[in-house]
Write a structure and sequence with these properties.
With 660 residues, the chain is α/β, with parallel strands linked by helices. It has 21 helices and 24 strands. Strand 8 (173-185) and strand 9 (188-197) form a beta hairpin. Bound molecules: ligand C2E and magnesium ion (2 copies).
């Protein structure tokens, strides 16, 4: 077996007395002796394995031993033959080192045959060295024939490092890092190879890549969960539209952009007019369906860059960026309304109407919250004007809204502190000019003693529903007051008390009961109480309202229609409602004697009332001319400044006493 380190001849002079063998192996003394001629020279000095160098100088010999180039030495004595001492340990450490390397090692001939393989390489290949040595290396490489020895030389011929797969006896690939260094031995192009086993490293790589794959999957899952959470936090679950939080963010962004560009940003508040009814009568599933359809419709009408958000039950908000003008914003609002009105969201043949309020910011002015508030205010205005329309917020509307909210606070505290008072305006019999009764008119008594008229709080009371409490207090006060009148007026002359009713007072559903207990507490005869309904209050003859009216009528209380001619009451209303009187609105009465048309209307209403068996009462009579004309037309009763203004309760007795 050739040594791993091919030895070279030193070419040093040969000693007579001491002969050394250049690096050989464990050749026996006899074998060594056989190779020497008489002069002790190697027969073939070019062959390293058989080189025998004689050294003449002991110094040279020692240096050669020190350099590790001596395998054995021969002592020539006086006697026959030589004595040969083999330096069997001379290169042993190196052999041992190569043999026991942690890496595989091999020497390759220029034709790619394995000349030497260490123990570790045999282990890696799971073969004996006999099977390995003498075989082409490619036999033991995966993808073998493609890998020629030239690969180990590298581009510059200085060797190379490359990763390959060895094939063990079972055909299992063993990844290795191959280090190759060329070795020229007297013209022979040999290659020294080392093989570092990469199996453990590959396994580690695989583990790391598995881990990072698992980690990537986990990250993806986390990202999905995060995205779902974000969507949940920023979108409405029912419609999938952005919610208020996301909307506010988008408005803020749009405003920031508009500050730079000078563009207009419009916020449109859309509130459905009929939604509560759908929910109440068709159930929540139908309500949900309607909301989803409305959401789709709104999205379909708008440009892709606009945002539609759902911010409450039936409240949607549209953010339209870069609108040309307020008119453009109104166009968008009108288009939304038309689209909604044309659809039949739950397939019941009924269309959804909506009220749209718009606020426009010029060049990014204002904040998201302020714009939303303004658009909401404008929407509220659209609703209070009957719904199904578009209103734009402006400064005047803002002022009006502030006034209304101040009025609401004033009314609420007056109700809470029972500072609601009634003033009483007499009604006179047209033929006798005698007081037949009074109408109770609500007022608020301020802390400073001033009196606030209904024009300052009635519409707010209606809108907010506070009119229910207000009406209840007025009814109680008026009935209590009228309960004391028999002591003032003579018995045969029973004074009536008229109290105004708002349609909202029917909402709790127990108005008849309340009226009855109030009458009982005041010890007032039901016939003395007259309740006045406005035309708008009874515009839709809802069965529940009709029923309550019937119950009240059954108590003996009289019902009448106030402000007749200003609303939409039809003959049907007059026929179907259990009415006893009709009050001709003062706007017609005041035209008596000056406006023929008004005169004809008043005459017609008086006739109509008489034909339907109702009393006619003229409101707002200010002149004797009007009064006389009413008498000529056959009007039954009259009320107005001509007789008296609404009086504080303390002045009622005097008015009764003055009455003819
Ligand atoms: P109304 O029920 O039609 O009351 C008649 C209104 O006309 C009263 O105004 C009265 O002061 C006014 N008036 C009476 N005679 C004349 C006149 O000769 N000339 C003029 N220019 N006006 C006259 P008031 O007291 O300001 O009440 C306004 C409205 O507020 C009432 O109209 C009624 O609709 C409502 N209202 C008043 N009190 C109540 C209440 O307790 N409940 C409800 N729901 N509404 C009330
Ligand atoms: Mg009235
Ligand atoms: Mg009236």
């Amino acid at each position: 077996m050739p040594g791993p380190f091919p030895a070279s001849s030193t070419g040093a002079p040969v000693a007579r007395s001491l002969t050394t063998t250049a690096r050989s192996t464990t050749t026996t003394v006899e074998a060594e002796e056989d190779r020497f001629d008489d002069a002790g020279r190697s027969p073939d000095p070019s062959s390293w394995s058989e080189a025998l160098v004689r050294m003449s100088e002991a110094e040279d010999t020692l240096r050669a031993i020190a350099a590790g180039e001596v395998d054995a030495f021969v002592v020539s004595g006086a006697g026959p033959g030589h004595r040969v001492f083999t330096l069997s340990t001379a290169d042993r450490p190196y052999r041992m080192f190569v043999e026991n390397m942690r890496d595989g090692a091999a020497t390759l001939s220029s034709t790619g045959l394995i000349l030497y393989a260490n123990r570790r390489l045999a282990e890696l290949l799971t073969r004996s060295r006999e099977q390995i040595v003498g075989s082409p290396l490619t036999m033991f490489l995966a993808g073998g024939s493609a890998i020629g020895p030239h690969l180990f030389r590298g581009a510059d011929g200085r060797g190379a490092t490359l990763e390959l797969d060895l094939l063990d006896a079972e055909g299992v690939a063993v990844p290795v890092l191959v280090g190759a260094s060329p070795l020229d031995v007297e013209g022979d192009q040999l290659t020294c190879l080392t093989f570092s086993d990469l199996s453990a490293q590959r396994e580690q790589d695989r583990l790391i890549s598995d881990l990072s794959l698992a980690q990537t999957q986990r990250m993806d899952e986390l990202q999905d969960a995060q995205a779902a959470l974000t969507k949940q936090a920023t979108h409405d679950a029912l419609t999938g539209l952005p919610n208020r939080a996301l909307l506010v963010d988008r408005i803020d962004q749009a405003l920031a952009r508009s500050t730079r560009s000078g563009a207009n940003t419009a916020v449109l508040f859309v509130d459905l007019d009929r939604f509560k009814q759908i929910n109440d009568t068709r159930g929540h599933a139908a309500g949900d369906l309607a909301l989803r359809r409305v959401a789709d419709q709104l999205v379909s009408v708008l440009r892709p860059m606009d945002t539609v958000a759902r911010i409450g039950g039936d409240e949607f908000v549209v953010l339209a960026t870069d609108v040309d003008s307020r008119i453009h914003a109104v166009d968008i609002g009108t288009r939304l309304l038309e689209e909604l009105c044309s659809a039949d969201p739950i397939g019941d043949g009924e269309h959804v109407a909506a009220s749209v309020g718009i606020s426009v910011s010029v060049a990014g002015r204002g904040s998201a919250e302020a714009l939303l508030h303004e658009a909401d205010t404008a929407m509220y205005e659209a609703k209070s004007l009957g719904g199904g329309r578009v209103e734009v917020f402006d400064v005047a509307l803002g002022r009006q809204v502030r006034r209304r909210s101040a009025a609401r606070r004033m009314l609420q505290s007056a109700i809470d502190e029972r500072r609601i008072v009634a003033f009483y305006q007499p009604l006179v019999d047209v033929s006798t000019a005698r007081i037949v009764g009074f109408e109770a008119l609500a007022r608020i008594a301020e802390h400073d003693g001033s009196i606030v008229p209904p024009s300052a709080f009635i519409s707010v009371a209606e809108d907010t529903g506070l009119v229910v409490q207000l009406g209840a207090q007025v009814l109680q006060i008026a009935c209590a007051q009228a309960g004391g009148w028999p002591s003032i007026a003579p018995d045969e002359h029973r004074l009536t008390i008229a109290v105004n009713l708002s349609s909202r007072q029917f909402e709790p559903g127990d108005l008849a009961t309340f009226v009855r207990t109030t009458l009982e507490q005041a010890e007032l005869a039901p016939e003395c109480l007259h309740l006045e309904l406005t035309e708008t209050a009874i515009i839709d003859l809802r069965p529940d309202i009709l029923e309550q009216l019937g119950q009240i009528r059954d108590l003996g209380v009289e019902l009448g229609l106030d402000d007749f001619g200003t609303g939409y009451a039809s003959l049907t209303h007059l026929r179907r409602l259990p009415l006893s009187f009709v009050k001709v609105d003062q706007s017609f009465v005041q035209g008596l004697g000056t406006n023929e048309e008004d005169e004809r209307i008043v005459a017609a209403v008086i006739d109509l009332a008489s034909n339907l068996g109702m009393r006619s009462i003229a409101e707002g009579v200010e002149t004797t001319g009007q009064f006389e004309r009413l008498r000529d037309l056959g009007c039954d009763q009259a009320q107005g400044y001509l007789f008296a203004r609404p009086l504080p309760s303390g002045d009622v007795a005097a008015a009764i006493e003055r009455s003819p």
